[in-house]
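Here is the promised in-class demo. Please do not try to memorize the tokens; focus on the logic of going from shape to residues.
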């Protein structure tokens, strides 16, 4: 389990640290801010298009192999990022880092299911969720410390020894798959291409629907990319329905509790992303707090998640995840609402308890929901379930980023109002996720 924790923590740290380093990278490479954003996009797109294919590869050829290959590629790409001297080189290295991270994300939950016995699986998933929460908030703080001592290539250099440690531990400890490979099963390469094309077209099209100051607005091109992505998606889904082991797990989506859990996850991560982007602007610009104070206050969110995760792990199996998720997202909605309706001059403790409430609600939702997604799939389709778990998270995060980007584009002259509005929308999304979660109760009672 230590191998799994270190690997997932490494990938989350990398994604959060690079965001803070972007201004320095843009300055040193003498590129525009818009070009610098592609260093983030390249990483995210690689994960998005490879997550489902690699989860199927894990089902067929072993989660251990996919995980170790992903770690090795992540280490090599980190070394490439250290020596990169231009935008093209660094973008390619970041895309390869994303491909390596996709290998870890694709089979992470499947490995947790292999490592823990059924009666302790909820505890393992809760630990995994807590690690993600801690590393997500530790990333910017660690990046700030490293950048205060050296230059941005050191952020990537730090990945290398930790990745090598994960590789060594994983080689010695990760278990093989328990379920035999289905007879005649193979990786459908055409479906993998369609999967990549669908996600790329939709990502680029939806991104361009949002007005940006650094580029001319071309809604026709954006809608054309979205329409083409939808068309490719229709062909892709029709092909999947004819497959015995589909790349896009339509067989798992046919399970009502799995489908509802996925929708709950998308709504929850959309709300979380909206809040995570809006809160720094609210604290630093709206409330005029110092970066140091803002950092300590924002730490209350993951602290609430970390404190709640063990409780959520113990409650898994004793109470339906539909109930736990519904209550958790209800608490998240309450926390977001009271943040959106803050008084003019709130104290640090007043901010902290609101953020801690959000974190506690998210922690109560996340582990039981992830447990249901992983365990509602047959054992031989655990990789597909793990891939969909990551896909739901990325889809929610992308939607949240799109919404707040659109708010800043549409309310450019009233930017100070955007964080509060974003938090209100996030609260509404959390309420919607809570409602969908409660719908699972009927299916779980039947089960």
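The designed amino acids, position by position:
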């Amino acid at each position: 389990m230590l191998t799994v924790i270190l690997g997932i923590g490494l990938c989350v740290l990398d994604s959060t640290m690079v965001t803070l380093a972007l201004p320095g990278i843009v300055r040193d490479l003498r590129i525009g801010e818009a070009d610098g954003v592609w260093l983030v996009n390249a990483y995210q797109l690689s994960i998005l298009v490879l997550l489902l294919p690699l989860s199927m590869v894990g089902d067929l050829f072993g989660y251990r192999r996919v995980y170790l290959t992903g770690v090795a590629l992540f280490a090599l790409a980190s070394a490439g990022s250290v020596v990169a001297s231009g935008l093209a080189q660094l973008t390619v290295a970041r895309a390869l880092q994303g491909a390596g991270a996709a290998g870890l994300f694709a089979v992470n939950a499947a490995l947790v299911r292999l490592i823990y016995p059924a009666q302790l699986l909820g505890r393992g998933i809760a630990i995994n969720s807590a690690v993600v929460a801690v590393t997500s908030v530790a990333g910017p703080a660690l990046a700030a410390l490293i950048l205060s001592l050296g230059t941005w290539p050191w952020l990537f250099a730090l990945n290398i020894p930790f990745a090598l440690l994960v590789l060594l531990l994983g080689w010695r400890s990760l278990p093989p798959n328990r379920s035999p490979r289905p007879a005649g099963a193979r990786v459908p390469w055409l479906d993998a291409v369609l999967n990549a094309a669908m996600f790329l077209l939709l990502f680029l099209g939806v991104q361009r629907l949002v007005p940006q100051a650094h580029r001319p607005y071309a809604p026709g091109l954006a809608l054309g990319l979205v329409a083409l992505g939808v068309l490719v998606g229709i062909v892709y889904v029709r092909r999947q329905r004819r497959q015995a082991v589909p790349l896009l797990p339509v067989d798992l989506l046919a399970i009502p509790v799995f489908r509802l859990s996925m929708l709950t996850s998308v709504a929850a991560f959309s709300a979380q992303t909206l809040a995570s982007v809006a809160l720094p602007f609210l604290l630093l610009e709206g409330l005029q707090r110092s970066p140091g104070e803002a950092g300590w206050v924002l730490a209350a969110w993951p602290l609430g998640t970390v404190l709640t995760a063990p409780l959520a792990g113990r409650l898994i199996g004793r109470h339906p995840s539909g109930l736990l998720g519904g209550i958790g997202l209800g608490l998240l909605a309450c926390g977001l609402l009271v943040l959106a309706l803050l008084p003019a001059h709130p104290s640090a403790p007043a901010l902290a308890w609101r953020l801690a409430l959000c974190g506690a609600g998210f922690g109560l939702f996340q582990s039981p929901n992830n447990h249901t997604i992983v365990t509602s799939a047959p054992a031989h389709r655990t990789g597909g379930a793990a891939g969909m778990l990551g896909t739901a998270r990325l889809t929610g995060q992308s939607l949240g980023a799109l919404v707040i980007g659109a708010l800043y584009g549409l309310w450019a002259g009233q930017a100070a109002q955007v964080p509060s509005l974003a938090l209100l929308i996030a609260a509404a999304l959390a309420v919607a996720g809570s409602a969908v979660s409660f719908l699972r109760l009927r299916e779980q009672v039947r089960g």
